[in-house]
Amino acid sequence: MSEIIVVTSGKGGVGKTTTSASIGMGLAKAGHKTVIIDFDIGLRNLDLIMNCERRVVFDFVNVIQGDANLSQALIKDKRCSDLYILPASQTKDKNALTKDGVAKILEELASDFEYIVCDSPAGIEQGALMALYFADQAIVVTNPEVSSVRDSDRILGILQSKSRRAELNMEPVREHLLITRYQAERVENGEMLSIDDINDILAIDLLGVIPEDTYVLTSSNEGNPVIMNEISHAGQAYQDAVGRFLGKDIAHRFLDPERKGLIKRMFGG
Amino acid sequence: MSLFGRFKDTKPKSANIAKERLQIIVSHERNRRSAPSYLSALQNDILAVIKKYVDVDADQIHINVSQQNNTSVLEMNVNLPD
């Protein structure tokens, strides 16, 4: 039985691709055969984050248009044998994604993969709608910031009205909230929306809280999903989120500011 | 925060302002999303009827549909000119 997971947000730059890469890698490392699909036609980036940009020969649109087989377009991850990437097209226009075309590819992937992670583009146009249409579960990536929370609510509305599950009156898409770029210190100072504030507004299951972490940038520089960095707080928080996704009961971490020692406090740090 | 800062800091925290603004706009947008599709046509018709008797502008009429338990409530607000 294959599960389709969309990683979505509405707003751009909140960490969808970072999340898709880390959640995909985490699921695969836990022994579940996983494929991550980049739905951002024209602006592909998952390949860079996953460090396979030089191995792209065929892409998603090539397969939809029948110019290549799925097996020719899938890129096997070099670090984890259970992980594959299906890159987006860099040249074709976003309307190349048709509902029938996407349905056919997902159906083919479902026979081979346990989890299909759909990395949505920003916005609410064709690419984003196609990424969420077939989803069984949704990970809504949200920054503790007004425009991101508002856009997440908008995306939740679309999941509840325009997804395949909504249109066919099936059990609704299971929604999970993933808060990223969380800064505990600023929350404590009343300068940033807290987890409770966001929960009060969006009111969906909290999958994880990823703290702001300099390792997110260095990981993307190197093409390693940050979840592979075991010393980084963001990596650990993603690992926890994957555990929760797989049904484990794991307490949230990194929600409170780190208490500085006396010396750090005296000299600044 | 310094010792003196504690006393003069009575300004509302920006996170609280953010939360209040979000609660208002999100609930407004949710209402609009869940509004039936005939609502804007209905609003135009009602406006036309009212205009037959009183001279009002379109923005002086607000129509809203909300759910209360098992009933839908159609609420209409018309600001009549003085």
Structural class of chain B: alpha+beta
Helix fraction bin of chain A: 40-55%
- Report the structural category of chain A: alpha/beta
Strand content of chain A: 15-25%
Sequence of strands across the biggest β-sheet of chain B: 1-2
Largest interface: A-B, 18 and 15 residues
How would a textbook summarize the main sheet of chain A?
8 strands, mixed
Order of helices and strands of chain A: EHEHHHEEHEHEHHEHHEHHH
Shape, principal axes of CA atoms of chain A: globular
Low-pLDDT ranges of chain B: none
What percentage of residues of chain B falls in helices of 4 or more residues?
Answer: 40-55%
For the secondary structure, the number of strands of chain B is: 2
Strand tally of chain A: 8
- Termini Cα gap of chain A: 50 Å
Residue stretches of chain A low in confidence (pLDDT < 50, at least 5 long) are none
Strand order in the sheet with the most strands of chain A: 3-4-2-5-1-6-7-8
The oligomeric state is: heterodimer
SSE pattern of chain B, N- to C-terminal: HHHEE
What is the molecular shape of chain B?
extended
Describe this structure in words.
The complex is a heterodimer of chains A (269) and B (82). Chain A has 269 residues and is α/β, with parallel strands linked by helices. Chain A has helices spanning 16-29, 46-49, 60-64, 70-73, 99-110, 126-133, 146-162, 164-167, 184-188, 195-202, 214-222, 233-245, 262-267; strands spanning 3-8, 34-38, 75-76, 83-86, 115-119, 137-142, 174-182, 205-211. The longest helix of chain A has 17 residues, at 146-162. Chain B is 49% helix and 20% strand. Chain B is built from 3 helices and 2 strands; from the N terminus they run αααββ. Chains A and B meet through α7 and α10 of A and α2 of B.
